[in-house]
Amino acid sequence: MQDLTPTAAPSPWLLRWQRHFGAGQTALDLACGSGRHVRWLRGRGLQVCAVDRDARALAALQDSGAELLVADLEGAPWPLADRRFDLVLVTNYLWRPLLPRLIEAVAPGGWLVYETFAEGHQLLGRPSRPDFLLRHGELLEAARGLRIVAYEDGFADGDGAGVNPRQIQRVAAVRERTPGDPQARYHLP
C-alpha cells in the first residue's frame, strides 16, 4: 500500500533517475495515495496528473497544483484515453490488466519508472496475496517495447524513507524516440 504520509521521502528508485525529469515535462503518478511523489515532481516543475481511487487521499493534494483524478483503476475503463506522459510513475501498486495501458502512456522519449512488490514478499509481510506480487521477471516482460535502462528483482533493505525491507521488482525504461519526432525531447542516459 502507498505511503499516505504527504511528507514521506520520494522513492530512491525515482530519485535515481531524477536528472531526466524537470520543468515543463508531464508526469502521471498512478495510485498516488496522498502524494509523496506528486509534491516532489511539482517541486521540480513537472505538470502532474495524480490518479487514485481514494478521494480522501487526493484531498491532501488540493493545493499542489497537480491535476487530480479520482478513478477506480480496477473496476472501470482506463480514465486517461490516449494521453501520453514524459514520466509514468508507479510505486507499490499492481493491477496486471493496466500494464499494457501504462506502457502505451509513455510518450516518445518518455520514461516508465515502476517499483512494486514481488514474489517472496509474502514471507516478509503484506501484501502477501499472489494477485499483488509480481512473478519473477514479470515487470521486465511487461516493459517489452521500451528500452530497459535498469531492472532489479530481489530483496531491498529498508530505504530510509520509512519503508520496511521488502521483495521487489523495479524497472526504469524509455520509449525510444523516432528521428524527427518533435514530441521526443529527451535523451537516454
TrEMBL record:
Keywords per UniProt: Methyltransferase, Transferase
CDD domains (UniProt xref): AdoMet_MTases (cd02440)
Superkingdom of origin: Bacteria
Xref: InterPro entries: Methyltransf_25, SAM-dependent_MTases_sf
Gene Ontology process terms (BP): methylation
GO molecular function, one term: methyltransferase activity
Entry-linked Pfam families: Methyltransf_25
Domain Methyltransferase: 28-107
EC number: 2.1.-.-
Protein name per its UniProtKB record: Class I SAM-dependent methyltransferase
Species: Roseateles flavus
Classification of source organism: Bacteria, Pseudomonadati, Pseudomonadota, Betaproteobacteria, Burkholderiales
